Amino acid sequence: MTDSWLALEPGTDPVERARTLRRAHETFTEAGTVPRPVRPVVAESWRRSVKAGVGPDSTANVELMDGDLGAYRAEHPLARVMPLIRELLGAFAADGEHLLAVCDAHGRLLWVEGHPATRRSAGRMNFVPGARWAESAVGTNAPGTAMAVGRPVQVFAAEHFVRRAQPWTCAAAPVHDPCTGRVLGAVDITGGDGLAHPHSLGFVQAVARAAESQLALLTPEPAAARTAQLTALGRDEALLSAEGRSVRLSRRHSELVVLLAHHPEGLTGDKLLCALYEDEAVPPVTLRAELARLRGLLGPGRLASRPYRLTMPVDSDAAVVERRLRAGAVTAAATAYAGPLLPGSRAPAVARLRRRLADGLRAALVARRDPDLLADWAHAPWGEDDLDVWRALVAVRPTAAARARLAALESELAAPGAW
Questions:
Q1: CA 320, CA 339: separation in Å to the nearest integer?
Q2: pLDDT: is 95 or 325 the higher one?
Q3: What does pTM read for this prediction?
Q4: Domain boundary residue among 280, 315, 350?
Q5: Residues sharing a CB contact under 8 Å with residue 257, sequence separation 6 or more, in sequence order
Q6: By C-alpha distance, which of 33, 35, 34, 39 is closest to 9?
């Protein structure tokens, strides 16, 4: 073949080629050898698939569903260029009874759109939003292999490693962050044998490049650099990162930045005093001294007064958990929760924020009744004595260890003096 990245040379009979590939696939799965007609990019992908433990009868797992999928898609950078991708590929997919698909950097399908009958047919092999089609999960396929090799790929018929996908042909190209160069995901077109034409590979590559150009216009690098990131879950000394610089804050400064980030409109000195100190006798000069030290740490112009407020936008890990909970993305919220907010803080307002966040998440976990999420919480340091979570866990996964732990907690609760 003159170009090993193209699935079919001009003039090749697709039916005969598919038959040859099926025989080659059988030879590889039975004997581990790759017959000569198989393209190098496919042969290498088949070997990676076996090494990853993928079998020819494997099925893609759906990892994101309902609210989790919706919240994750809304926050993903490629959401901003989906209107452009639909404009360029949507009509082509609908007219040709193909599918337009976009995945993230982990190979999880975020959008699958196109002809309704084709979507129903693809759904039978779990080619659906939320399913993971990484090469390491389901073997050779265009979006997964494009991510693995970092360039546009066509996969035709039995070049797919998993048998359920072999009636299909697809072409995909990775999309990169124009500022950092990291892979954000891939754009894919999936359908019948006609997609093995060289034009489909060039077309999907052009769409990926257009998406990158649009991202560069929508996300100028200086604007992104102005947003600071605050990490305060599961740690007493928060980490503030901005413009390539990270600062570990003292405990008191951590409390101040957490509260000011939570109140971007600002807080008066009196409100900050009440929020920070249990002792009402603490004089205002003590707070002003802390704020002066924090201002020197943050740099000029970043902490304003009257009211006290941060002049730069700050996004915190606690805010991420809150947003995902509001969107109903319980799994995504639990994944982002690294522990209680500033667990050692006794500042009244921080304690209220900490309880509200933890109570909201644990209530969502109990309501969701997912045994894995409940187990993760119950076995974490902050959940080992959580009676409600242990009861919920035993209800859905009644292992001997879980029942024993629940019995011990209930015994402690019933002991004299317990409350």
A1: 13
A2: 325
A3: 0.56
A4: 315
A5: 230, 232, 238, 240, 249, 294, 310, 314
A6: 39
